[in-house]
Every structure is written in structure tokens, then in C-alpha cells.
Design brief:
Strand content: under 5%
Number of strands: 0
Shape: flat
Helix content: 55-70%
Distance between the termini: 45 Å
Largest sheet: none
Radius of gyration: 19 Å
Order of helices and strands: HHHHHHH
Oligomer: single chain
Length: 151
């Protein structure tokens, strides 16, 4: 099997990276004081995999997020383009939901700020989809109707 990594496909990984980094940041900010004093069992995290890493040590969150980004990026590169786009959107939306829940919940950032923060992964997702839709010549794939040039 030949693997061809194109820049277009790599753009779909960008929203994953940005939203995962934002997610782990707000997750760490939302941990109770006791967690930071060494009582790692007090971790607040719904994701069972991330929770397992974070119970070991706060640096476990970094290890988890790097593994998460690597795994999802690998799938985005390997899957057919339409499935890669679905996975990129699904993962970004899921992370944005988690970011929002941390911001309006434990971090008490309010509705406006929370919505403005999740606007960032949304903008990056739309931009990445646009970049991933570019063909090899750099023009946007718009239509299959041939153009007529005038001379």
C-alpha cells in the first residue's frame, strides 16, 4: 500500500491539534487545588483514557494529548478524504464541546467568553476544509463544468 501524504490532507489535522491543545489547557486549569498538591485521584475528567493518564501524574495529560493527536492525525492521513473530513469535524466538535463545558462550568467564564473561545476551532476547521479541498494546481475544486476561455 502506497501512502501519499499531501499538504491538503495535513490541513485536516490542524483543527485536531488546536482543539486538543485548548481542551487539555482548560482541563488542567479546571483541576482542584488538591490535584496540584499530589492527590491525583481527585482529577476531574470525563474521558476515561485521559483520566487514567492524569491519575498517574499531571504530565500524563500531555502524554495523552500527544498520543491522541498522533492517532487521529494518522487516521486522517490514511482514510479516504471524505472519512478524513468527517473525522476531523467530529473530533473538533467534540473537543469544542468539552472546552465549552469547562469554560461555562468549573472555570466560570460565562456564556460570551466560552462561545468566543470555541469560535477559534470553528474558524480553523472551516479554513482547513477549504485548504483540504484544493486540487494539485492550487485552485479550489468548484465544479466539473469545463470553462470556456475567450481569445
Amino acid at each position: 500500500m502506497k501512502i501519499s501524504i499531501t499538504t491538503n490532507r495535513l490541513w485536516l489535522c490542524l483543527p485536531i491539534i488546536i482543539s486538543d491543545v485548548l481542551d487539555v489547557t482548560v482541563t488542567m486549569l479546571g483541576q482542584p487545588t488538591g490535584y496540584w498538591k499530589g492527590s491525583y485521584e481527585l482529577v476531574r475528567e470525563f474521558n476515561p483514557f485521559a483520566r487514567w493518564f492524569m491519575v498517574i501524574h499531571p504530565l500524563g495529560a500531555i502524554v495523552y494529548i500527544l498520543l491522541d493527536i498522533a492517532m487521529i492525525s494518522f487516521l486522517i492521513i490514511m482514510l479516504p478524504l471524505i472519512l478524513s473530513k468527517v473525522l476531523s469535524a467530529f473530533w473538533t466538535i467534540g473537543s469544542a464541546k468539552a472546552i465549552y463545558n469547562w469554560l461555562v462550568g468549573p472555570l466560570n467564564m460565562g456564556w460570551w467568553i466560552s462561545n468566543l473561545v470555541i469560535l477559534l476551532p470553528t474558524i480553523i476547521l472551516v479554513y482547513a476544509f477549504d485548504k483540504a479541498s484544493l486540487n494539485q494546481t492550487g485552485s479550489n475544486v468548484q465544479s466539473s463544468i469545463p470553462s470556456h476561455e475567450t481569445r
